[in-house]
Structures are given as structure tokens and as C-alpha cells.
Amino acid sequence: MLKNYLKIAVRNLSRRRGYAAINIAGLALGLACCLLIGLYVQHELNYDQFHTEADEIYRLIVDTETQTVATTGASFRPFMEEDFPEIESMVRITTETGLLSHTDPVTQTTRRFEEEAYCADANFFEFFDFPLLRGDPATVLQERNSIVLSETLARKYFGDADPIGKLMMVDNDPDQMVTVTGIMEQIPTTSHLQFDVVVPYNLYLARYGAPPDVYSFYWPVSWTYLRVGDEAEAQRIEAALPDFSSRHREASAAEGNRPRLESVTDVHLYSEANYGPEATGAIATVYLFSTIALFILLLACINFMNLSTARSAERAREVGVRKSIGAQRGQLMGQFLSESILLSLAGLTVAVVLAEVMLPFFNQLSGKELTLRYTGNGVFWVSVLGAVLLTGLLAGSYPAFVLSRFRPAIVLKGAVRGRAGGLSLRRALVVTQFTISIALVTCALLVYQQLQYMQNARLGFDDTQIVALPFPGNDYGNSGEAYEVLKQELVALSNVIEVTSGVSRPGLGYGVGYNVEVDGAASDEQGLNQAFVQGVDYGFFDLLGLEPLAGRVLDEAYGTDEGTVRQISIRGGASVTNRHEDRGFVINETLARQAGWSPQEALGKSLRFYISENGIFYQDYWGEVVGVVPDIHQTSLRNTIEPLAYMASRSPANYYLAQNYTLVKVRPGQAMATMDALENVWDQVVLDEPFQATFLDEALDAQYREERRLGQILGSFTVLAILIACLGLLGLAAFTAEQRTKEIGVRKVLGATSGSIVALLSRELVLLVALAGLVAAPIAYLSMERWLTAFAYRIDPNPLIFLGAAAVALLVALATVSSQTFRAATTDPAKALRYE
Length: 836
Known about the structure:
Layout: H1 2-15, H2 17-45, E1 57-63, E2 68-69, H3 76-83, E3 89-97, E4 100-103, E5 110-112, E6 116-120, H4 124-127, E7 132-134, E8 146-150, H5 151-158, E9 167-170, E10 173-184, E11 197-200, H6 201-207, E12 223-227, H7 231-248, H8 251-256, E13 258-263, H9 267-270, H10 283-310, H11 312-324, H12 329-366, H13 378-395, H14 397-401, H15 408-412, H16 420-456, E14 466-470, H17 480-491, E15 496-502, E16 512-518, E17 521-522, E18 530-536, H18 540-544, E19 550-551, E20 564-570, E21 575-588, H19 589-594, H20 599-602, E22 606-613, E23 616-629, E24 644-648, E25 650-651, E26 655-656, E27 661-666, H21 671-685, E28 694-695, H22 696-702, H23 705-739, H24 741-749, H25 754-788, H26 799-825, H27 829-833
Parallel strand pairs: 6-11, 8-10, 18-24, 21-23
Antiparallel strand pairs: 1-2, 1-12, 1-13, 3-6, 3-12, 4-5, 4-9, 7-10, 8-11, 9-10, 14-27, 14-28, 15-27, 16-17, 16-18, 16-22, 19-23, 20-21, 21-24, 22-23, 25-26
Helix pairs in contact: 1-12, 2-10, 2-12, 2-23, 10-13, 10-16, 10-23, 12-13, 16-23, 16-25, 16-26, 17-21, 23-26, 25-26
């Protein structure tokens, strides 16, 4: 029976090659899109699932007054292990750039590591399932002078030689050597932790002169992970964390820093925590792409159903003849479904080829390295096959369940021709197709418009011709001499206008948040709980083109902005901390407004910015406001502007605060020559670190990479969706013109012009697309309004966008059917009247 079904199906499809080609092409495009999106969704949903019992691993995150952060201090691990015996294990990770260096045995040249090192507790490789090619997970990080490299990095620095036992230096100090004790396999791309180097946590502590048993909830800044038995235990621990904080931390710190747990499998898609690993995704994007895949597949199904209903009269005769000779309804249903499933399978075959061809382009757009694996990915292919069969069943549902129930006597009399139900269904399906297409076009246009708005928005400062250099030796207190030499050499270059430095690059981060006191008292009642503080060098404001609204900017000529430093005894005199006093602060408009001041009123106000806990002041700066500058967007336009204060990065006795970037303003033109000159100076002054310069405007543009990718992917799939819809429309137009051939002949004999015939055949299409535009507008508006809420600074959707999307769809639709309508309109009436 099945063999006969397939044989008849092949004959029917070969008889209608154009119909079959349009359906297979539409299905293939739809399925190819679904394959690509399915690979993307599978990749995103599989993040961190490779760890054994991944559902038992959690990351500790903290809700502060202004944001959620993924960083904690070192004390969380020992105190939590003591207070929560149900915790099976914990591990801390911090990062350090430029920590290690290696001397090439052949050239005897020393190279500092370009790669960021993970500094982790000794149980790191037992806690996580990052496989080792060499070394024992239980002991590979036990010794403080050990180091584990990835296979790629080991080959980069040691070539084909056996790396185990090889030595590397810490801070270019021959007295501080580490030994390679392990080699890692390539870290899976579905891990939110991406690294090539791991050293012991205690090595990091020793580098700063700290003991292994650091008891601080503030430093060192680490990512803390824990493993528990089940979700119920995790919930109990999380519920007890507020009480844990109140027992071990002073009241203000416990209240302003509320820890909670986050499943490791949620980090990539669901986490909103800042200062975590950069490999972040968004579940909203997964939902969006999945919805697009379903819509595109629906478009392909609609094509099939449209052509099936259009051919209902022709197939109805077949139904009548077969029923009259004894065929049962079930047999006819099986026949129609067999044809549909055969088409779907043919479409799948073509779709796999298309997906392989399109995959490199899709990887480039998405920033992923996806592959279409045919083995070892059974769940994916079973899902694909299920989708194909479902598509076949859905697409063949109308002929199977409607045509098969026609009565032979009525059908053979021709009474089915022009059946209103089929016509109404076709119209509804065309409206559905173009509703989806217009909604996708609208969303793509709005994403593009928002992206253009962000890229072209005024950030409040001049970001052109500024080169940012990651600062050498950016530790507190020990970078002044190196910076001064570098600055002096850079300023001497003919193409350099200004050189300064800062904690972060303008527009790319605030730095550290501080508690605030105003005139010696906490300012909670004024709405100013916390503010960000940045240490900058003189010339910073001139480089960015910032003019003060009141007062002045930081200026070396005054000699007072650096203030004084004195040491304060803590813990009964066992330790001391630095208090920076009499400093000059320049604040932004937002800080002044939240403190309740106008720019002029802010001048001379006393401010204190500090970070302290349990009697320890980690940072403590006292001074007064010397100037107020306009607000600038210190992060992307997704975020609101925060209160910010600037202070001189210098202190007395040539003590420098942390400086992460040297900023160089260069003259326009000859960019490559200027960069070569900067690199030459860098190589002469900074002997062992790589030159990693970036133009500030390019770095600012790069922070919208995800939005750009979203727009490109959405635009690409929108084009494919329109193409699929037009394929169906082309087939439908051809069939409609064929069905109305005799009518067209009669009209032309009676004097109708070709133009009037074209208008007649196109009128209904225009009305259907207009209706689709009306339906698509609120759908697209609501969808994009929700997406736009993620941006603090955003566009307001313009009604012209919705009209433009509908116009685009209408023009494309008219262009698609024009060839068929024009051919029908110019047919010789004599031939038309002889039709059939």
C-alpha cells in the first residue's frame, strides 16, 4: 500500500514539476533556516551542561545598591564552608593580566603572556569538568609555584617540546618561577569560563603580599562557586544568606550587599550580573530566533496549503474518480499525506545542502563556531526529522482532510470549482504570510534604527583620534615612574597632541563604586548612597573636550588637587591603611543633582568616598568639589548615567592610584604611521609587554556588537522569509491566472485593456497585503517595545517605519506576481477562449 502511495505521489509531482519545485524550494529554505537556528539554540541551551551534575553547581552573586555583581571577596568561601556544612565544595577564581612571562630557549627573548590568567583554588579541576591531557586534577594546583596551560598555549610557548616541568617567570622576576604541572584540553565553547592559563589562588595572594587565609569580604575580587546536593539545599542556603551576612559583616555592608545563588547553567543566558566572564548570551535572543524559525517554517507550510487549496478543483476530480471505483477516504488521506511528507523529505535533503552552504555565513553573523554534525547528535536530528514530518502533516492537512471527504457525484459534476471555503482559506493564509513578513521587516528596520541611534548618539565627549593603550604594571602605587617615562616619550612625537591616563576608557566603564559622605555625614536622605570614582591624570578633560559647568577641572598648576596621605592604624595598631585627604574632586552633573546641588552650589562642598568593612578601610578619599563637568555616557546607552567623581591619579611622594589605560590624542591622518610610531615608543619603554592599542571610537562601536549581530541575523532571515512567501505567491499567481484564463479572454473580447486586466488580477493582492499590514503593525510594535525597554536611551518607533514595511512587502509582492499577471493579460483572446 505504502509503495503504491509513493508511486502515485511521484507521478503526481512529476506531472506538476513547477508546483513541486516551488514547494520543495520553499520547504528547503524554511527547513535550512530552522536547521541553522536549531544549531544556534542547541548551542546556547547547552552552556555549562557538560559538567557532571551541572544542576548542583551555583555561582554566588551579590545585589548592591546600584547593580548586581558576580564578584565577591575571599572570605565568602571559608565562612560559608563553616556555616553551611551541606556545601560539598567551593572554589574561587580571580583573573590577572600580564602576570606571567616566558623566556624563549632559542632566542633568549622574554615575552609577557598576552593571555589572561585564571587564579583558582587548588580544587579547581576537581570541582569543574575541564579535562586534563596531562596531570592529576587533585594535585595539579596544590603547589603555589605550579601552572596549568592549555594545549594550544603550551604549543605556542614551547613548540613540540614536552612542556611538563618547564619553568616560567612571575612578573619577569627570575626569583619567582612557576613549573608547568598540567596541560588542559581545549575548553568547550559552551563554557562561560574561557581560559588558557590557570595558576594557584595562593600565588595571586602572595604576589600582593597577602597571607593565604585572607579574611575580607571585599578583596581579592573573585568569582565564587559552590556545589550542593540538590536544589532544595541550594534554596535553604540562599534563604539563610541574609542572616549569614548580618553575622559576619557590619550592618551597612550586609544591608547594601545581598548575596544570592545563581545556577551555573543559567549564567550564560539569564544572568544580569556585571563583572563576570564575558561569554554572555540572552534568553530573549534564543526565544526570538526560535520564534523566527517557527514563523519561517509556517510560511513554507502556508505555501503548500495555498497551492493545495488552489488545486482543489483539479484534485477534486481525482478524488471523485477514485472514490467512484471504490477508494476509501482513509486511502485518499494516506495518499495526500504521503505526497506532502515526500515533499518535506525532499525539502529536507535540499535543506541540509543549503544549511552547509549557509553555515559559514551564519557563523560569521552569530560569532559562533557551529558545525552540522551528522553523528553523535541524535537528539538534534530526531528533533529535525520530527519537525519535517510535522511540517508534512501540517502542510498536507487540507487536501487530506477536506478533499478526501468530497462526494463523487457532486465532484464529477464540477460543483467544487470555485469553492468559497478554499478561497477564504487561501486569503487567510496569504494574510498570515504577509503579516509575518511585514512584522519581520518592521522589527529589522527598528533594530537597525536603534543601532544607528546608539552608534551616532552624542556621548558628551570627543572620542575621535584617541588611542587607548592598556597600561603597563597597573598595580596600586608602583606604576608612576613607568607611566611618566612613557608619557614623556609619547608627547615628543609630532603626531601626538595630548597624553593622559585613567582607570577606564571613556564610555566603556565606570570603575569602582564607593560609599559617599557629604559634609561629614552619610547622604542617604539626599538619594546619593553610592557613586563611582575614577582616578585620572591631568589633561584628561582637555583630551575629551570637557569644559566645566562650574569651577575648574583638575590642574597640576594648582598643586592642591593631589592632597595629602597619612597612615591610620587599624586592628589595634597591627595594620595601617592610607587615608587620602584634602583632595580636589571634579563631579558630574548627576552627582550634583542627586546631592541636591546646582553646579555652582556644589563648589567647595566636602565629600568623602570610601570602601570599608569590619573596621578596614580599603579605599578612603577626603576632599572638596573644585568643579562640575557635564554628564558623559560612561557606559553603553543601555544604561542610565550614574553619579561620578574624578580625582587626580597622583598622590604625594610619586604614589599613583590604579591606572589601567594610557590615552593618546593623535592628529588626524596617517593613522598607520602614527600607530607605528606609538608602537616603537612602547617597545622601547615597555620591554616585555605586547603592544595592544585600540582606537577609542572603534572600541565604543564594538560594545554594540550583539545588537549589530541581532540586526544582521534578523535582516537575513527576514529576506529569506520574504523570499519563501514570494515563492508561494508566485505559484499561487500562476495558478490563479491559469484558472481565470477563459474569463480573461472574454473580458478582452469585450474591450478590456491589458492594464485593466493586470489591475483586476492584482487588486485582491493589494487588499490582502494592506490587511496584513494592519495586523502586523501592533504585533511588531509590542514586540519591539519590549525589546527597546532594555535600553535606557532609545528611539521612539516612527509610524513611517510600519508604513514603509508594508510598502516594501506590497512592492515585493507586486513584483513577484507581475510576470504572471502581465502574461495572462497579454494572452491572445482566441487562445484564451479555446482554453480547456
